Structure formats: structure tokens, C-alpha cells
């Protein structure tokens, strides 16, 4: 029979390990399980409405294909603005700037933000294999909901903070630097209204605003198509005419 002091010590150790705070990998595993088998998705097309960026709603269509191809169209009063990345070059068609009707290469923060957005999987999916570091920061509250917070550090040193719902393990909020009117500013991104599409849980309402500000733009997702046929030429910069 084990001496009682040793038995109590063993029970205390067991209790401590059971109630220990989760680590980053545990939280990442829970997140991956919650959203579903994203590795089975090779492409997507998302139709949405952007509310609050203009006096009227803006229809937006985003097409993406693994590993890092993206094509975005924003319709502004029957005029279409295009932003795309073909895996090498970020380019744009912007009828609202002089000469912008001809495709031109994007540069600076705007290009970097689009290239980051083009990554098919978000930073919490397989981060180690992509050189992304994730650290667990602890428990928090987001709009009254219990959450777990993570710090995400990309290979270029850019950091963001992500809060996951402690009950559903889905993303509630993300804070990161983003281009706003030509300047890099801290922005908040809040995700909600998760729905299952072909086995994948995706947010259908996304609110975006400057950190600490009350005003936010809202993205309302209207339709999601997964594993749609998208030819690589869809993302290539058109030749100048």
C-alpha cells in the first residue's frame, strides 16, 4: 500500500494536470475539428454584400483556389473594380483612378494585404508547416462570450490576435494591421452567423472596423460554392491592349 502522503501528492498532481490550461496546439486542434475538413476543399466562390463602405451596398465576389490564387470583384454603380493575385503578381483594375482601366501591378501594403488574403487556409490551419508561430495567451471575454486568445506571428514578423469561442472553438474576433485609406492601421474583424456548407462551418456575417471605433463595415455572405471549377487563367493579369 502506498503511503498516504504520496497518494495525496499523486492525486494533487492528477488534479493539476486535468485542470491545466490548454496549450496552443490543443486549441488549434479543437479549431480544426470545429470548422471541418478544409483540406478537401480546393477552390471556392463567395458572393457577398459589403455594407457601410459607401452610401449604398456593394456586391462583392471572391474566387480563390489553392494554394494562393485569388480574384476579387467589387461592383460600384455598374462599374467593376478587380483585384487579383496569380501566385506571383498582385494586380488591379481600378476605373476610379487615372489609367486604372488598364490592369496594373499592385505595390506596397495594399499588395501585401492581398497576397496574405490569397492564402487559401487561414493562419490557424497547419501553421507550423507555413512558418507561422501561434502562442496561447489565455482566457478572455468577447462581447460577453468566453473565449481563448491566440497570438499569431507570420514569417515576416506581422502579428495578429485571434479569439476563439471557448464553447464552439470557432473564431469570434481577430485584430490585425490592415491598409485603410493608404495607411496601415489596427483593425478588428468579428465573425458570426456560422453555417455549414458542404461540411465546412463558415461565417456568413463579418464586421470590420478600426480598433476602438464604433463604426463598422459589414460583410453579409449570400452564397458559397466550394470546389468550383476555376482555371488558373482566371487569376492571371490580362495583357495590355
- What is the typical, i.e. mean, pLDDT? 91
Mass-distribution shape: globular
Q: Specify the biggest β-sheet.
A: 13 strands, antiparallel
The domain tally reads: 1
Numbering strands along the chain, what is their spatial order in the largest sheet?
6-5-4-3-2-1-13-12-11-10-9-8-7
- The portion of residues assigned to helices is 10-25%
What does this structure look like?
The chain has 241 residues and is α+β, with helices and mostly antiparallel strands. It has one domain: outer membrane lipoprotein receptor (LolB), chain A (Clam), CATH 2.50.20. The chain is 15% helix and 46% strand. The chain has a 13-stranded antiparallel beta sheet, with helices on one face. Strand 1 (43-51) and strand 2 (58-65) form a beta hairpin. The longest helix is centred in the first third of the chain and has 15 residues, at 4-18. The termini are far apart. Mean pLDDT is 91; it is low at 6-18.
Q: How are the SSEs placed, and which strands pair?
A:
Elements: H1 4-18, H2 24-35, E1 43-51, E2 58-65, E3 69-76, E4 79-85, E5 90-93, E6 104-105, H3 108-117, E7 133-142, E8 145-153, E9 159-165, E10 171-180, E11 183-197, E12 200-210, E13 217-226
Antiparallel strand pairs: 1-2, 1-13, 2-3, 3-4, 4-5, 5-6, 7-8, 8-9, 9-10, 10-11, 11-12, 12-13
Record keyword descriptors for this entry:
outer membrane lipoprotein receptor (LolB), chain A; alpha+beta; 241 residues
How is this structure best summarized?
This protein has three helices and 13 strands. The protein has 241 residues and is α+β, with helices and mostly antiparallel strands. It has a single domain, classed as Clam (outer membrane lipoprotein receptor (LolB), chain A), CATH 2.50.20.10.
Amino acid at each position: 500500500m502506498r503511503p498516504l502522503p504520496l497518494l495525496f501528492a499523486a492525486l494533487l498532481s492528477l488534479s493539476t494536470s486535468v485542470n491545466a490550461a490548454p496549450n496552443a496546439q490543443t486549441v488549434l486542434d479543437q479549431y480544426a475539428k470545429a470548422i471541418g475538413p478544409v483540406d478537401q476543399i480546393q477552390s471556392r466562390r463567395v458572393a457577398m454584400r459589403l455594407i457601410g463602405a459607401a452610401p449604398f451596398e456593394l456586391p462583392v465576389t471572391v474566387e480563390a483556389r489553392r494554394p494562393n490564387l485569388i480574384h476579387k470583384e467589387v461592383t460600384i454603380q455598374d462599374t467593376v473594380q478587380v483585384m487579383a493575385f496569380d501566385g506571383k503578381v498582385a494586380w488591379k483594375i481600378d476605373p476610379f483612378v487615372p489609367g486604372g482601366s488598364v490592369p496594373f501591378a499592385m505595390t506596397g501594403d495594399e499588395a501585401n494585404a492581398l497576397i496574405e488574403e490569397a492564402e487559401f487556409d487561414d493562419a490557424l490551419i497547419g501553421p507550423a508547416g507555413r512558418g507561422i508561430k501561434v502562442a496561447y495567451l489565455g482566457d478572455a471575454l468577447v462581447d460577453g462570450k468566453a473565449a481563448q486568445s491566440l497570438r499569431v506571428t507570420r514569417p515576416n514578423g506581422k502579428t495578429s490576435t485571434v479569439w476563439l469561442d471557448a464553447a464552439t472553438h470557432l473564431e469570434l474576433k481577430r485584430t490585425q494591421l490592415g491598409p485603410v485609406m493608404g495607411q496601415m492601421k489596427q483593425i478588428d474583424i468579428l465573425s458570426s452567423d456560422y453555417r455549414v456548407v458542404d461540411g465546412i462551418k463558415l461565417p456568413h456575417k463579418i464586421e470590420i472596423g478600426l480598433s476602438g471605433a464604433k463604426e463598422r463595415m459589414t460583410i453579409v455572405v449570400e452564397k458559397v460554392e466550394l470546389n468550383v471549377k476555376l482555371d488558373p487563367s482566371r487569376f492571371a493579369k490580362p495583357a495590355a491592349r
